[in-house]
Fold this sequence. Notes:
The structure is a homodimer.
Chain A: E1 3-8, H1 16-31, E2 35-40, H2 46-57, H3 63-70, H4 72-87, E3 92-95, E4 102-104, E5 113-116, H5 119-126, E6 130-134, E7 137-139, E8 145-147, H6 152-163, E9 168-173, E10 194-196, H7 197-205, H8 213-221, E11 226-230, E12 238-241, E13 254-270, H9 275-285, E14 293-297, E15 303-311, H10 315-324, H11 326-329, E16 333-346, H12 356-366, E17 373-377, E18 380-386, H13 390-400
Parallel strand pairs in A: 1-2, 1-9, 2-6, 3-6, 9-11, 10-12
Antiparallel strand pairs in A: 4-5, 7-8, 11-12, 13-15, 13-16, 14-15, 16-18, 17-18
Helix pairs in contact in A: 1-4, 6-8, 7-8, 12-13
Amino acid sequence: MEKIVLKFGGTSLGTIDKIKKVANIVKNRKDKGNSIIVVVSAMSGVTNDLKEKANSISKNFDDIELDTLLSSGEQVTSSLLSGALNDLGIKARSWLGWQIPVLTDNNHTAAKILKIRTTEILKFISEDGVAVIAGFQGITKNYRITTLGRGGSDLSAVAFAKFFETESCEIYTDVEGVLTTDPSMNKNAKKIDKISYEEMLEMASLGAKVMQPSAVQMSMLDDIPIHVKSTFSEKSGTKIISENDIDNKKAVTGIAYSKDNAKISIIGVIDKPGVAADVFEPIGENNINIDMVIQNTSLDGKVANITFTIKQEDLKKTLNTIEKNKKKINYKKISYNDKLTKVSIIGAGMIASPGVTHKMFRSLANEKINILAISTSEIKISVLVEDSHTKKAIKALHTTFKLN
Amino acid sequence: MEKIVLKFGGTSLGTIDKIKKVANIVKNRKDKGNSIIVVVSAMSGVTNDLKEKANSISKNFDDIELDTLLSSGEQVTSSLLSGALNDLGIKARSWLGWQIPVLTDNNHTAAKILKIRTTEILKFISEDGVAVIAGFQGITKNYRITTLGRGGSDLSAVAFAKFFETESCEIYTDVEGVLTTDPSMNKNAKKIDKISYEEMLEMASLGAKVMQPSAVQMSMLDDIPIHVKSTFSEKSGTKIISENDIDNKKAVTGIAYSKDNAKISIIGVIDKPGVAADVFEPIGENNINIDMVIQNTSLDGKVANITFTIKQEDLKKTLNTIEKNKKKINYKKISYNDKLTKVSIIGAGMIASPGVTHKMFRSLANEKINILAISTSEIKISVLVEDSHTKKAIKALHTTFKLN
């Protein structure tokens, strides 16, 4: 019997009727003779509601208690789905993180799975049972509940596929699959049939919401093929697989974007070795992530401007940090812009298509969109533009790279 | 340091503001130097909401999954309250049933606590920590979650008081304490300062809602004094203690009532040994509880009528059972009335006050209230009356026995 992992997200389990629908999907797969491990998220909205409750109790709500609190959401859906499967005459039971156990490190709210015990669940599914796993959760060796961070039940699904050596890992969600871009930004967005781990990782990291980067990364490291599909349609979805298994590599597979970027320019610093370190060291120490960096030197080579981008939410903290270190950095002034979007084109075939970079810039120039910063990797090019240009930029690039 | 158990019910934890209030109550007690174990219920409404969800998924929702589902409610309040205590600068942590563990039998949805491990919690509270226990829940030796049935967090509180040998067990609720009767039935209801276990057990069994009978029974068996008090006032509440510790035993301490009784009369059965067994055996086999029983024999001693009372919700099932056994029982006809209330007077001093019975009947007769059935024990007298007479009966008895 083929062992498979089926993961259902919060929007697929958001109501009693949807839970019943999911039970029927699982039953169909069971009837086809599969050994099934189901991984569930909390009902949509529940995790945020619990977070808000914690937040209204304390702005510094304890991380360990927060994990205990949040893990209750998946406890609810795993037991409800098991009950729904029982009602269809299917042997099923729920497993919570501690019952398995899913052992994690003690990095609460963003824990890493170290080990999953398989004995009991393997026995259960080999005896015709469906195991329903509460995703997103584990325990430390001290028996405290941990959660895996944003999108953690995707991570749970991939980890179960890995530790149980299943044939496949299917992520059921409320969209058809991975799309060339966000359909709310461009109605011509098309479903991608196959995408490589690397491309998907870039897409997810750069703003595509269908899967969390950490889950994609884990599937890439262990070469666990993922199949993203819709709970609400029979369509074929998107396969996330090894680049070697993709025949026709397009130059550009998809376009991602992320809002909420801010750009800071430190103007008039003395251009000498170590100045960048003087700027970025205190920022890093404050746990602020730097994204893009540009350093311009003046013609005489004596004065430089350092420009970099960060998450908009970190702007205030970053400006404070720089001002505190004004003496050490020795700059003239600071300017910033916090209404910027990063638009990225992603494609594993890019490296073999030399024209991609200038095509991208020409396409944006034709639309009179000013590029404020650029960063590239082997399989993506990101540009920073004004928020107001986002839709126009995506539309132009979608046409230029023949994704329509 | 005095060890105490403080238990807070769902109405005391129903909102974020109430949880903060409870945290302040706990802090006050901590500041006075107590070692504190807090036991919490789920937020009011949550357990019923989860039950409804299970019920809309399946009319026969699996008991084990139901327990997993329901236990999430106390998981939420225990972590929220711990977070609230941390926010007040108090060292506190939540403990779920499985983390302690609270070992129960495997009678899911109504499990019995067998053992509570104390080591870790004792260490924590002796090191100035407040232990916040998710009430209502335990685990079987197979690591499945159990719940303790209706009012289960009261049971948890008494069990923690027992296993940790605490000085007291305080039940915080939304009323001032135990009242002489339901104030919605008689606005003259007064708070009782002290009540014996036995009296409280009868009060609770006969309809008073402030504590569940099973929790009172457990406190009685282990002589664990309980102090019922309000979360929302500073008043002194009610002490539930051993009868020996009560000086002035009143003939009648309180008046309880329960609606939803039904009375069935089986008319014209042959009066021979074994006839009552023929009637009640099949009913018992269908898990229907019989409350009061009256057997009248005709003057010639040949024909009898058997009358008994049951819960209204069991009426249909009981009638079906009797009709199925018509041949064996051999009766003429059945009559029934399903709109009846049982009104009970309770008092440990009753046994020393011979006039109580006739005073009760006279008081009801004066109000022209017909008594349909009677049952008595050493410390209570219950009468069955028409639903419509309930308020009038309680008012009359409240005056007759000087409870105003």
